[in-house]
Structures are given as C-alpha cells and as structure tokens.
Design goal:
Chain B: This is B9 domain-containing protein 2. The complex is a heterodimer of chains A (1536) and B (175). Chain A has 1536 residues and is an alpha+beta fold. Chain A is 40% helix and 16% strand. In chain A, strand 36 and strand 37 form a beta hairpin. The N terminus of chain A is likely disordered. Chain B is built from 1 helix and 10 strands; from the N terminus they run E-E-E-E-E-E-E-E-H-E-E. The mean pLDDT of chain B is 89. By secondary structure, chain B is mainly beta. In chain B, a hairpin with a 5-residue loop joins strand 6 (75-83) and strand 7 (89-98). Classes of the chains: A alpha+beta (1536), B mainly beta (175). Strand 1 of chain A pairs antiparallel with strand 9 of chain B, so a sheet runs across the interface.
Chain lengths: 1536, 175
C-alpha cells in the first residue's frame, strides 16, 4: 500500500498546478487514507473493480471445468458487506459471477506473470511497479484514478512515457500475432492488455470513474450500489472495446493532444434484447441442475453407499430441506468441488441433526386456555365452609368421597375344565402353542438378530478397511473387538432363537398330529380347530448359497475366535513354561546345594520343606481343528435352522372344522356334552374383601367360553386394597362351587374409563374333579397313551378378560381418591420425566406399558438420550441376556451424595431422633439425644429391636400355657394399635384444646360471691380448698406423689385361739387381757387368748405398696381399728414420660394390704423377764384392696369405704363378728359380711386427667342412627352433665359400633348346666361363677358412669335423682325414671348383634391343666425362695399335701363354709405347728398377677429361723379354657 | 449425614386485599433428605388484624433434617387463604420460597400469587367468592411451564427462619 500512496503523492505534487486534478488527487488520497484506517473490507472494496473488469472478458467462455481452486469461504467473507445470500440464482452478481471473477483473477495473474517475464526489460519503471502491486485494492484505486490522470500525464510528460507506450503497443502487437487461443478463452496477452490499456481513451469510463471516485470517498455503500452497473456496461462493450482501445492506443501513438471533449462520445441508450441477454447470461452463469444426482457420483468409485442408521448408529433427524434445493446444492458441489468431502457415506450431504426444537420456547401470542398442562389446571372452587375433621393437607384435594371404579367383565375362557375331553385338552394346548407362535412370529427375534449380525459383520468389515477409517488405529481395533464380542453374543442368541422357533413349529405339528390321530381313534370331533400348514416355496439355489455362506462365515468367525483363544493359551503356556523351567533350574541348584550341605552337616535336618507343590510341567494347548469345528457348526445349523431348499412352513389355525353332531357320538361323549350344558358360571366381584356385586349366571358354552359383557360401577369410599373376582360354577340345580379367585390389579390413577384396555387375567383352581364320562376331570391324572403311561395332571384354569378403570365424573374429572401425601411427593418428583407423566409412575415397573408408550411416542431407539430406557425395554421384553437389577431415576443423585444410604441409616443419632419423633414407646420420652454417634450406646436399641423381633414370636415362657400366650400376644397387639390410633388422634386439636376461655360470670354467680363476702367467718368449720391442677408435661420423676389416707377399718378378722391338739398353754402363749384403748406402742405380748370370755383380738396395720414402694401405718388394736394416717408414695411414670397418654397407660395398682402384727415372746427363761424383752414380730396377711392407678388418675381422688378382699380361709383367724363390744358379755357371734376399710387416695399435685379419645372413627352404622346417638348424648349431658352416657363404642378394629350390638344372651356351657340338673339356683350360681372367671381386660376404668342400661335393643338413660346403683330403680318402663333411646320418633330398626349366634365350648384339657398347675406351683416356690435371699426356705411336704387336698374342696364350695373343717384337719395333722396361711383365688389369665398376689401377701417376709412353708396350687378347668386358680400358701412354725 | 435445623416462624402477611387470613404451609424436599423430627406441614390460625394492615400468625416451624446431598434443598410452599364474614374460605395466594442455605436468622418475604381464571371466574369471585385453585398443588414449586398460568399478585408472607447447619463442612460444603 505504501508504495501506492507514495506514488499518488508524487503525482499530486507533480500536477500541483492543475487545480482540478489536485483536488481529485487530494480527495482520493483522503479517501484512501480513510479506508485504510477503517480497514474496512479490503477485499470488498476491491470487488467493484473486478466486477467492472469482467465485461471485457465476458465473451470468453467460462473455463469451469478446469477450475479447481475456488475458495467459497473466502468468497463469502468478501461478500460479507454486501449481504447477499449465497444462493446462486439470487442476483445477477451472484455466485457464478464471483467465481468467474475469481477465475479471471487467477488467469490474470498467470497471464501477468507471463507477460512480465516477457516484457520485463522493456517496461519502464512505474508500470511494472504498478502491475506488480500485490493487492487488488491498489489496482482498484489505480484504475479508478488513472484514466484522467493518465491522459493528462501523457500530454505533458516526457518522452520516456510515450516511448513506453510505443513499446507497449509493440508488445500488444507482438501478442496479437501470437497463435490464437481457443475461442472464449482470454489469452494471457488479452488479459494483460485489458488491464493495462483500454480504459484511458474511453470517454464513458473517464466520465464515470471520477464520479465513482467522489462517491467512493464519501460512502462505501454507494460504491457497492454501483457495482451492479459495470457488468451492464460491459456487456455491450465487449466487441468494440478492443477496437477502441486499439484506436486510442494509436491516438497515443500519434501523440495527439486530446482535449477533455475528445473523450466524450454521444451514444444511443444501450439496449440488448432479452434473448441476447439470456444467451449472455447462460454463458456467464452456472445454473446447477435440479435433477437428483445419482449416488455413485457422490461417492468414491466402487463404494457402496453405507447407511449408518441401518447399522444401528444414531443419526438424528436431518433438517427439513426441499428435495430440489438439495439436488441443486449437490449438483453444484459436485461440479465445483470434486473432493466429495461434502458427502457422507450414504451419499447424502453431510448434515447435523436438526437443531430446531419442536415446541416454541416463547409463549405463543394467543394462548388458549384449553391447552393448559395438566399440572397447571385450575379449578374454580366455591367458597365453602369446611369442616376440619381430617388433617389439612396441602396438595391433596379436599373433595371427599364419591369415587367410582368401573369394572368391565367381558368374558371368561377356560384353558382347562373338568369337562374337557381329551381332544379339548389337545386343542387348548394347540391354541396356546399357536398363540405363542404368533407372538414369536410377530416379534421375529430371529430375523432381527440375523440382521443385527449382518450389520455387525459389515461394520467389522468396514472397520478393517484402513483407508476408510480416519480414526487412530487402536480405537479402531478396540471398536472392532467390541463388535466381535457382540457378534459372538448375537450369534448365540440368534441360534437359540432359531432353535426355539423350530422347536415350536415342530411341537405344533406334533400336537396337531396327535389331535388328528385322536379324532380318528374316537371317531368324532369335538372341536372345530383345524391346522393348515402352508408351504412357501423357496429358491433352492439362493437358499443353499445363503445357508452355505452363513455357515462359512460362522466357521471363519469361530476359527478366528479359537485362534485368539489359542494365542492366549499359548501365551499363558509360554509363561507357565518359563516359570516351570526356572523352577526346575532352581530346584536342581537347590538339590545340589543340599547334597553338599548334607554332606557337610549330616546331622542337620533335611532342611526346609519343599515348596508346597511342584509345578506341573505345562502342556501346550492344542490347535483347533477346522474340520471338527465345521462339523459342529453344521450340526448346530441342521438342528436349529431350516435346511436349504426345504419349504417354509407357516401354520394357520382356524376354527373351520366341524363338530360331530350328538347323534353320531358315543354315549360317554353325549353325556359329557350334556354335562357341559348343565353347567353355568357366574362371577362375584369382591372389593376390599366384601362382595359388592355379581354377574348373571351364564351357561358354559361348548367351547368353554362364557360371555358376560357386564360393567359394574363401584362407588367407593376407601382406597381400594384388593379387587377380586370369584368364579363360581353351578352344576344343574345343585349347589355352586367356588372355582377360583382372580385377583385384579388396582388400576393406576391414570387409567380412566374408555382408556383402559381389556386385559386377560389368568386363574386356576386346585379342585379335584373326576367325572364318569368323557371329561378328563381336574387334578386327576389321565393319559393319552393306551397303556396309561405319560400321565398328565391338569388343573382347572382359565382366563378372565376384564378391564378396570376409574370413572370420569360429569365435569371430566376422574373420580379417583386422592393419594396419600407421600405418594404425591413421589409422583411430582417423577413427573419431570416425560415418559412418566404420560404413563404414570407404575409404568416404570410395568415394562409392557413402558414399551408400549415408547412405541407409541415413536421414541428414536438410537437417540443416545433414550439409550438407557431402550435398553431396559429391550431387556425386559425379550427376557434374555443381561438384565440389570436396578433402574435409576435420579442418576446423578448418587454422584452428588455425601454419604450412602446405608451410612445414613446406620447413624445411631438419626435413628434415635427418628424413633423419638415417631413416639415409639421406648424412646418417646428420650429427652436429650447425644450430638455424636460415638456417645450413643448400642444397647439403647436392644430392647426395641428385641421387641420388633419378638413381635411374631410367641413367648411361652412367661405364660406357661400356649393358648394364653397367644391371647396375650394378641392383646398386646390390640393395645399397640389402640395406642397408635390414640397417638394419631392426639395430634388433632379442637378449639377447646387450644383456647381456654373463662366464662363470663353471670349476675347470679356474682351476687352469690358478693353475698359470701358478707358471710360470717367460721374458722372451726374447715372447707376444702380447690387445688391447682398441673399440666403433666413439665413434671419429672419424684414430682408426683400418691397420697393414701387410711382412716379406719371395720370387722377385721380376729385371731382364734389355737385349739391345739395338746391343749397346753405354752410359755409364750401367755396372754393379757386386752384393753381396747391400749396404745399401739405398748409392746405387751398380746396373744391369741384362750381366755374364754375375753375376745381374741387383732393388731392390724395397713401396708400400702405401689410400684414396689412400701409404706405402712402404725399398728392399731382391735377388729375395728382407726388409723387416720396419711401415707405418701412416690410415683414414677414409665420411661419418665409424664404426658397424658403415658399416664393413662400406667397399669400399676395400689395394693393396700392389711396385716395382723403378732408379737411372740421368745424369751427363753422366765427369770429374765424382769430384765429384758425378747419378742418377735410376725405379720399375718389378712386381706387386701387393689386400686388401679389409672382410676386414681382419672378420678383425681378416691374417697370411700371398700370391701377388703379376704381369702375364704384364714388359718388362725375367724371372720365372725363379735358383738361383745356392743353387748357386753353376750358373746353373740355372727358371721361377718366382710371387712371394710375407709380410704382417701389422691395425688399431689393434682394432674389434669387426659381427655378420652374423641376421634370419630369410621362406622358401619346407619348415618341416621349415629346422628340420633349424638343427639341423645347431647340431651342427656344437658340434664346430667356428670353422668356418663354411652351409646357407641369402639370395637377392636377401630370402628364405631352401636353399643347394644354387644349385648345378647349367649348360651352357657352345657357342661355347667348339666352339673346339677335339679337345682336351678345352684346352676345359676355356677354359671355366675363361670362368668366371673372369664378373664377380661380392664380398659379405661370408670367408676361414675354406671348409670345407663343397655339391653339388646335399647339404651335407657337414668334420669333419676341418684346414680348409685344401689339406689336406682331398675324399672325401665317408667319414663320418668329412664329415658329410652329408641322412642316413637325413632323406631328400633332391629340391629343385628356383633356377638356370635352361639358359643361353642370345648372342654378344657385336664391333663394340660394339671401340667399347668404343677408348673405354676414350681414357679411360685422358686419365686418365694428368690424373695428370701438371706434365709433358707424349707418346704413342709406334709403340709403341702394336706393343703393340696383342701383346694378342690374349696373350689367345689366356692370358698364358703370350709374354714372349720380346715382347721380341724390341719390341727389333726400338724398339731405341733403354729401356722398361718390362706388360699388365694383368681381367674387365670397369665402368670404375673399370680406372682404379684403371692408377693403382696408378704408370706415370705417371715424370718423366724425355723419357719417352714407350704404351697399348693390347684387349677380347676372350666370349659373353653377358663381356669380357676387356687393358691394355698402357709407358713409353719414348730411349737416348742 | 449433614443436618439442618429449620427453626422459625411464619410471622404474618401483608398486602392482601382480604382481611381474615390464614396460611397453610408445607415443606418439600428432595429424595436425599430425611426428616428426623418435626412436622412437614401445618396451618395457622385465622388472624383478623385489628390494628394495621399486617395479619400476624407467629406460627412456629421446627424441623430437623438429615441429608445426604444438597439436591432438593428444602423449600417452603405456602397457601394463604382468607375467610370471609360467612366463615367461608377462599384462596388468596400461593407462595413459594427456598429455605435459606446459610446459617443464622433470616427474614424472608415470600410474595404470593393466585390464578386469575377466566373473566367469568373473576366475576364470580368478585361477587360470590371462591376462585380458581390449582388442581395440583405441586405446581407451586415444580418448574412446569407456568407461563400458561395467568395470575394476579397477592400479598407477601413474612417469615423468620433460623438455620442451624451441621457437618456440611465435613463434605466440603462451606456455609
């Protein structure tokens, strides 16, 4: 560029005087500078000139064929500023033109260099410089600027210039004389001339150019606009121009002076006819053909097109380009660039996959509401008040109930039925095989695999072709190896498939033959089945060739494989051999050494043992034998493949055959057919184990098909758990039998009516049927053979075709119950994947559906995105080859996980936290959980895990009796489920739970309290103050105490004088007359007095034990003691959980035991009496009162007089009430009615008793009835707010049941009724006793609620003044006293009872009872010994046997009137013993209460050194495992 | 093994045209998250502001999560409902926000929106109450093409959440 600029400068300086020109020069210069600065398209600027040049050469034909070096890329960049599309036909200055220009330029260059070489010597300096200037841009400026300047220069310049022209001209002439170039080709000379000469004289040009210059200086765009002109000009000038230039050259030659006007010539407007123009254009432009290019042209020679897609490679969709456009492009590419790199292996233009997304990423302008996505759908909901009963859930619809399931049962087909004849069996088999064949045929796996094999082989072939592949060698090798291994696998699969196909075909034919022979044999036809084998002729020769080729290919592959293997083996062998050799060598050396060593040190042991094993000399592997292999291959082919030339067999099964009519059949067959006719089938629909409907009964057809075509609409409320169809068969008019159950899957929520496909569900039955006719029966062996071999046993089986779907409501909403919350979360997580949203999550597991969806949505199986899915589908549907045992949804999740699931689950801390929040009983009250895992002991979980483990294991150890153990387990489970339900219910709050609103005091109350202020103070009349109630949750151990106030007792049994066999008063039995007012602290040795008149007295004290804490009162005296003492017992809640629910479930009892304190003087010597007191205190248990803690908790206080539970026999005590106190000496003894104790029990602080569960449970009761119960309860509560009114109760499965359903007269055991047939009174007593022995579960114990009566049909509510049972008038017919539930307004609907109709009583096994009795005795004895760890426990066998003798008597008399006999008996036997003892009696439920009862008597507490014990157990079995247990415990002390 | 405690409260809401408001809330997490204790969802009481514009709920949120990954960080979704003078409830807005990922106390403002529905539905809403609701509540936090949904802006729910993170540094997560 610089030289050019310099030149221009020189020029401008030279022609300074010429203003005009200088101006032009200046302008030019600036423009040039500007352009340089801008660096604007250098080439773009160059173009116009090139264009303008073109015309001059236009008459030459385009040398298209020779063009080899077009550079479309550079071309397009040059075109950049013009923004012209690269389509050839788009504009005149199109592609062809440009390529033309390019070509011209190249020609020019070539010509130039040639010309230069010839003219180098002659040409004066400036010219060559100009010519050689490298850039086109310079050329442009020169050309633009020169004409004017040049002309003027020539005028004034020196001779050298003109001389040079002469020379030029000479050269021109020289060139012209040269041999003519072929027409249409610009010769080098011409080109040269063109560039160097011909512009100057042209008047137009000179006019035009300066103008162009000016414009050029101003804007680039204008220049570009101008570009189009030159060609037009050029075209008409073509011929003359050379002439003109010649003349002008001559003019120069003459050295004529030219005025400016000389350059101007007036000419008519140029016009060319369209025809000429077209002609011209044809010559100029290249119009590619629109015809399709044959493939061979696009590919290298002798190469077949290769379709990657067919080989299983992913191609993607090509962008949509019209065929003609493609053809044009292909044609052009072919002519322009023969390199063919634009074409792929398949002969098409290489294209990237279509990048256009099928859906817009911007919203369409007009969105219609109907194309809402399902998730975004909104529903207009009315503003409704909603009742909060269930938990609020975000996301789940609130619409309750009214869901519908449509079950369409279309029909039933038996695949086997007892009435099947032999032929039917075969027919069924044939049909099944044919179905299988059809399915296989449709899938055509063998064909697919063959094709795949072919493709793989091709791929290997092409891969081996080195010039085809451009990849590095090792990757090619790798892929080839992969291919090969795949070929191996595919071949194996293919062989297997083919063999299966062939086998199937063979079996079909075999069965058909059997059937035919059977038909012939029995001479009638039962089934219309007919098999036709269609033969398809094949071209034998081609077939043979293919067969042979296949075998050869296989052999060669196998050979290769074996070679490889062999190679490997050889390698291994060589290595092994080397090793062996080395070892041998070493061995030899060692031996040598050893020899020496042995020689040197003969005494030394024979040294190290030899290496474990001598390596065996390896055997070289054998090379493979080709012949053998070929043999193998051929054999396999013969087995699994159709022989060449053998016709293709296509079986076709039709029902075209005719059935032999009845008349022609033998009798047995007729019988069979009749039997079939008599049978009919119906189905029951069982929903959640309840029958909801049944189909009509339809006769069984001769073809064992039953058509129902019924649709059942099930309105459901609960989520369906099971859906079952029961197939019933009716034979004639006899009963129906349940054939089988068909379990239908619950449909997916996406399946709605109309979309559900009919599915066939198979069923089978295990019934055994033998028939006396031709039918083969079910479950019975039969045979086709004459000799009865080859027996078959067929079970009744069949298929039910049905479809189950959710109904659609009126507004198009499917009536599907909402899923639970977790499921929703799961679903939404999955919804993102497309497949899942369209088929539902279960589609993931149902692979058939997934496959179907994939087929429907036209998933490209080769798209890498779909690869895992496709693989899964192919694997799952074919059922062969490698099956992955997982399918990951969130593939990436695992990569980003911090820790694995296992580790997370292993964390003890998390586990503890979770268990605590789940309120698992063991951890419910775990207060602080350690922050680190290492601080948590493993044993924390032991109990819990053990419980989980043992849940289903029945522990018989604790219960002795397996039946009880089972019952206990069941009870445990019930309790757990109740607690769980309670826990759920606990989280539901009502307004009253959250808000405590004090009632505004009414005027009357205000007035009363005001009045009270004025009341007189009466300090001597104490009043109870209300205590503050404490909420339970803030408590901890030791905060709660149970206060037991023992006030007094009445009629405590008194001691009886020991009417000893040897009526000798012992020293110790010296008694003093008792004073009633004796202070308890007097330690006078009171004793059983034999003083005839004075009463034998008693020194009772009360011991209260609760949770194994024991407190006792002081000792009082006499049978009517008064203690008035307050005992305080601490209370510990289980697991430290003081929540309401936990407190409610405390099962501990408060035992209040009454003992007699007996003092014995143990002083050995009377003489010492003055100086010391030696007495022993003994305590004798008299009776107990048991009060459950839950009662105290619920009642807050217990205040009253309770009957003391005193054993029927108290040895040494009499229960006679002595009237002596009242009546002086009239010692009238009457039998006391029992002893009583007055107690007051409460808790400190007072706890708020928990509310009972208010949860409304499901109910199957009539809605009206339930409403009535609510109303009734409300009314009763209004009148007597403190009386409990029960109308409904919750049963064991958590359903609300109307209470009277529980009441029903039940029959007592027959055995008891027969016991004393003549005495109804005794019978009644016996039965009452029996009932009292039935173990029951003390649930929530409520005392105050005994005021409504239930009968089988009605409830009456007590509306009397009193609610104590004793004071209630039980005449329910008086409406004033009892309010009945059912009245005239609500009639008794006749409710059925939940109780069984009749109880069946089994006799209890006596032996088992006896065994249990022994075991209980043993355990109790052990326990007593355990409780006396510091003392020896002796057992008095004699006494024990005596006691054991008594117990049955006690049972018989039910503990009455036996005391004296006892005493007498015992005295007779054990006269020299002083004993105290009593029998305990209770119904048996489990062992623990028995032990507890024995413990509470404190028998074991006697620590007299020579004490002996006696214990006897008796169990009286009543029917139905009701056991009455008697335990007799006694302690004996030998009198000295 | 990392743990996240979310302790805080739903303070209240401002900017709703309705006056008696309550809020249903729920927390949604990815599969990697495990709730150790606390409840995932709840509902506040109805608050009718007597003074000022803001309805105060001061509803506690206390959740303890264990996680084995960062994916599916907990997010809160809210539904603000209003109760009219007849005791009928209608939707006032859906809202969604992520639980913050840095420890400490955070004041969050969660703007809400509600579906607009067709003009007929709008008219019905204005006169008889009720209004369009999402059939599938998970659209609140799932990234479906929500542009199809025409919504109106509701008010803002204010939350105050305290975050306690534990052991994230053990897995190379700085917080």
């Amino acid at each position: 560029m610089n030289p050019k600029e310099e030149k221009v400068k020189i020029i401008t300086e030279e022609f300074d005087e010429n203003d005009e020109d200088a101006g032009v020069g200046g302008q030019k210069k600036t423009s040039k500078m500007a352009r340089q600065k801008r660096k604007k398209p250098v080439c773009g600027a160059g173009d116009p000139e090139m264009v303008s040049e073109n015309p001059h050469l236009g008459n030459q034909p385009e040398p298209l064929q020779e063009d080899s070096d077009t550079r479309p890329l550079s071309m397009t960049t040059r075109r950049g500023p013009r923004s012209l599309p690269p389509i050839p036909s788009a504009s005149r200055t199109g592609f062809a033109e440009f390529s033309m220009r390019e070509r011209m330029r190249e020609k020019l260059q070539a010509a130039r260099s040639k010309a230069e070489s010839t003219l180098l010597q002659e040409i004066p300096t400036p010219r060559p410089r100009r010519l050689q200037s490298p850039g086109e841009k310079e050329l442009e400026t020169e050309f633009g600027a020169e004409p004017g300047e040049e002309a003027q220069k020539t005028q004034q310049e020196d001779d050298s210039q003109s001389r040079s022209r002469v020379k030029f001209r000479d050269s021109v002439r020289k060139i012209k004389t040269k041999p003519p170039v072929p027409p249409g080709f610009p010769s080098a000379e011409e080109a040269y001339n063109f560039f160097t000469f011909n512009f100057d004289p042209e008047p137009e040009e000179s006019e035009e150019k300066p103008k162009a210059k000016n414009r050029d200086g101003t804007t680039q765009e204008e220049e570009e606009g101008e570009e189009e002109e030159p060609p037009v000009q050029g075209i008409h000038k073509t011929d003359e121009q050379l002439l003109i230039s010649a003349t002008e050259a001559e003019a120069f030659l003459w050295g004529l002076d030219h005025a400016a006007a000389d350059f101007v010539a007036v000419r008519p407007a140029d016009y060319e006819s369209a025809h000429v123009r077209l002609q011209m254009e044809k010559e100029l432009l290249f119009v590619p053909s629109r015809l399709a290019v044959p493939t061979y042209k696009k590919l290298p020679e002798n190469v077949q097109p290769r379709y990657l897609e067919d080989e299983g490679l992913y191609i993607g969709t090509r962008p949509d380009v019209p065929r003609t456009c493609q053809n044009i492009m292909e044609n052009r590419l072919l002519t322009q660039e023969p390199g063919r790199r634009w074409f792929g292996d398949d002969g098409r233009i290489v294209a990237l996959p279509n990048p256009i997304k099928p859906f817009p990423s911007r919203p369409p302008v007009l969105t219609q509401e109907q194309d809402f996505r399902a998730e975004l759908e909104t529903l207009y909901k009315k503003a409704v008040k909603y009742v909060h009963r269930s938990q609020h859930m975000i996301g789940s619809g609130d619409s309750p109930g009214n869901f519908q399931l449509d079950i369409d049962i279309s029909g039933l087909i038996f695949t086997h039925h007892p009435c099947f004849s032999r032929e039917h069996v075969l027919a069924a088999k044939l049909a099944q095989l044919y179905d299988q064949y059809l399915a296989r045929h449709q899938r055509n796996k063998a064909k697919f695999l063959t094709d795949k094999l072919q493709a793989l082989r091709n791929a290997v072939q092409t891969g081996l072709n080195p010039e085809k592949t451009h990849k590095s060698l090792d990757t090619t090798q790798k892929t080839i190896n992969e291919y090969k291994s795949e070929i191996r696998q595919t071949r194996k699969l293919r062989d297997a498939e083919q063999e299966k196909d062939r086998m199937l075909l063979k079996t079909i034919i075999k069965v058909w033959k059997e059937m035919k022979s059977l038909r012939e044999f029995q001479r009638f036809t039962n089934t219309p089945l007919k098999l036709v084998l269609r033969k398809e002729k094949v071209d034998q020769k081609a077939d043979e060739e293919a067969y042979e080729a296949e075998i050869q290919a296989e052999i060669s592959e196998l050979l290769e494989e074996h070679m490889e293997e062999h190679e490997q083996k050889m390698e291994a062998y060589r290595a092994a051999y080397q090793q062996w050799k080395a070892w041998k060598k070493a061995q030899r050396a060692k031996k040598k050494k050893k020899k020496q060593a042995v020689e040197e040190h003969p005494e030394e042991e024979m040294g190290e043992p030899y290496p474990e094993e001598d390596p065996v000399k390896p055997v070289p592997p054998e090379p493979t034998d080709r012949a053998l292999m070929e043999h193998q291959v051929r054999e396999r082919a013969a087995r699994s493949r159709r022989r060449p030339g053998e016709p293709l067999l296509v079986p076709e099964l039709s029902l075209a055959g005719s059935v032999t009519p009845n008349e022609q059949c033998p009798r047995v067959e007729v019988l069979r057919r009749e039997d079939v006719k008599r049978r009919s089938i119906y189905l029951k629909v069982i929903f959640n184990d309840k029958e909801v409907s049944r189909t009509d009964s339809r006769p069984l057809g001769a073809d064992f098909r039953v058509h129902f075509g019924q649709i059942f609409n099930l309105q459901i409320f609960n989520w369906p758990e099971s859906l079952t169809l029961q197939v019933y068969e009716t034979v004639g008019h006899s009963g129906t039998t349940l054939l089988a159950q068909v379990f239908l899957p619950i449909p997916e929520t996406t399946i709605v009516t109309g979309r559900a496909p009919i599915e066939e569900v198979e069923f089978s039955s295990n019934q055994h049927v033998t028939l006396d006719h031709e039918g083969v029966g079910s479950g019975m062996p039969f045979s086709f053979e004459a000799d009865g071999s080859n027996q078959l046993i067929l079970m009744t089986s069949g298929k039910v075709s049905n479809s189950v779907a959710w109904a659609i409501g009126e507004n198009g909403i499917p009536l599907i119950p909402p899923l639970s919350q977790q499921n929703i979360g799961f679903r939404s997580a999955l919804k993102r994947a497309d497949a899942i949203s369209s088929i539902g999550t279960s589609g993931l597991t149902d692979l058939k559906k997934l496959a179907k969806w994939a087929a429907e949505s036209k998933l490209d199986p080769n798209d890498p995105n779909n690869a895992p899915l496709m693989q899964l589908i192919s694997v799952a549907t074919s059922g062969e080859s490698y099956v992955p045992d997982f399918f990951r949804l969130e593939q990436l999740q695992q990569e980003f996980n911090f820790v694995s699931d296992e580790e997370l689950n292993r964390s003890k801390r998390f586990r503890l936290l979770c268990l605590r929040s789940q309120e698992v009983p063991e951890f419910r009250n775990y207060k602080q959980i350690p922050a680190y895992d290492r601080e948590i002991m493993e044993k924390v979980f032991q109990d819990y895990e053990k419980r989980l483990r043992d849940r289903n294991v029945i522990e018989t150890k604790d219960h002795i009796d397996p039946h009880r153990a089972m019952v206990a387990k069941y009870l445990q489970q019930v309790r757990e489920s109740v607690i769980n339900r309670f826990l759920i219910a606990k989280h539901h709050f009502l307004l009253s739970d959250l808000i405590v609103e004090e009632e505004v005091p009414s005027i009357s109350i205000l007035g009363l309290s005001l009045f009270k202020l004025a009341e007189q103070k009466r300090p001597l009349r104490p009043r109870r103050k209300g205590r503050k109630k404490v909420a339970a949750q803030n408590l901890s151990d030791g905060d709660i105490k149970v206060l037991v106030n023992i006030i007094r007792a009445y009629d405590i049994p008194v001691r009886k004088p020991t009417a000893s066999k040897f009526q000798q008063p012992s020293r110790s039995s010296r008694t003093f007359s008792e004073k009633h007012a004796a202070s308890p602290t007097t330690h006078s040795p009171t004793h059983s007095a034999d003083y005839p008149l004075s009463q034998v007295l008693v020194r009772p004290f009360v011991e209260v034990s609760f949770q194994r804490t024991i407190c006792h009162t002081t000792t009082a005296e006499g049978p009517n003691p008064s203690w008035n003492e307050e005992l305080e017992l601490p209370f510990r809640a289980p697991n430290g959980d003081y929540s309401t629910s936990s407190l409610q479930s405390v099962k501990d009892d408060v035992f209040i035991n009454i003992f007699d304190e007996v003092l014995y003087d143990v002083l050995e010597d009377d003489r010492e009496r003055g100086s010391g007191i030696h007495t022993r205190i003994e305590r004798h248990w008299l009776g107990c009162v048991k009060i459950p803690f839950s009662t105290i908790y619920f009642q807050a206080k217990i205040d009253g007089t309770f009957k003391i539970d005193i054993p029927p026999v108290l040895l040494g005590y009499s229960k006679e009430r002595s009237m002596i106190i009242e009546r002086g000496f009239d010692s009238v003894r009457s039998l006391s009615e029992g002893s009583y104790i007055t107690l007051f029990i409460t808790m400190e602080p007072q706890l708020v008793p928990g509310e009972s569960v208010r949860e409304k449970f499901d109910s199957q009761e009539d809605e009206k009835l339930l409403q009535a119960t609510e109303k009734f309860q409300a009314e009763c509560a209004l009148k007597f707010p403190h009386r409990q009114c029960l109308t409904t109760v919750t049963d064991i499965s958590g359903k609300t049941v109307f209470i009277t359903r529980y009441l029903k007269p039940l029959n007592p055991p027959q055995e008891l009724l027969e016991a004393c047939p003549n005495n109804p009174q005794a019978t009644a007593e016996l039965v009452a006793r029996y009932v009292s022995l039935i173990p029951f579960l003390p649930d929530t114990v409520s005392f105050a609620g005994i005021c409504d009566l239930w009968s089988t049909s009605d409830i009456w509510f007590n509306i009397q003044r009193h609610d104590s049972p004793l004071r209630i008038n039980f005449d329910v017919t008086k409406p004033k006293l009892w309010k009945p539930f059912f009245s005239r307004s609500l009639l008794y609907p006749g409710l059925s009872s939940v109780q069984p109709e009749e109880l069946i009583y089994q006799r209890t096994d006596k032996a088992a009872a006896a065994e249990l009795q022994d075991r209980i005795e043993k355990i109790l004895k052990e326990k007593i010994m355990d409780w006396r760890p510091r003392h020896l426990t002796r057992w008095n066998r004699y006494c024990t046997s005596a006691l054991r003798h008594f117990l049955p008597l006690l049972e018989r008399s039910r503990g009455e009137d036996v005391e004296d006999d006892h005493r007498g008996e015992l005295l007779k036997q054990l006269g020299d013993y002083r004993f105290s003892g009593f029998p305990l009696h209770m119904p048996y439920s489990e062992l623990k209460p028995l032990i507890e009862a024995v413990y509470s008597t404190g028998v074991h507490n006697i620590d007299v050194p020579n004490v002996e014990f006696a214990l006897a157990v008796y169990i009286h079995p009543y029917p139905k495992n009701v056991l009455s247990v008697w335990i007799y415990v006694a302690s004996l002390i030998r009198n000295r | 093994m990392a743990e996240v405690h979310v302790i805080g409260q739903i303070m209240g809401a401002t900017g709703f045209s309705e006056s008696s408001l309550f809020c249903k809330w729920g927390i949604h997490t990815g599969a990697a998250w495990k709730l150790l204790s606390g409840v995932r969802e709840g509902q506040t009481q109805v608050d009718t502001p007597q003074v000022g514009d803001m309805a105060y709920w001061s509803h506690p949120i206390d959740l303890h999560f264990a996680t084995k990954g960062l994916q599916g960080w907990p997010r809160l979704h809210l539904q603000v409902w209003s109760q009219d003078s007849f005791g009928r409830c209608q939707l006032a807005g859906y809202g969604f926000c992520h639980v913050p990922s840095s420890p400490g106390t955070h004041q969050l403002d969660c703007p809400t929106w509600r579906p607009l529905g067709s003009w007929r539905e709008q008219l019905a809403r204005a006169f008889v109450g009720g209004g369009p609701q999402l059939l599938h509540g998970d659209a609140i936090y799932s990234g479906a093409d929500r542009y199809r949904l025409h919504t109106a802006a509701g008010g803002t729910v204010h939350l105050e959440l305290g975050l306690l993170l534990r052991h994230f540094d053990r897995y190379g997560v700085e917080c």
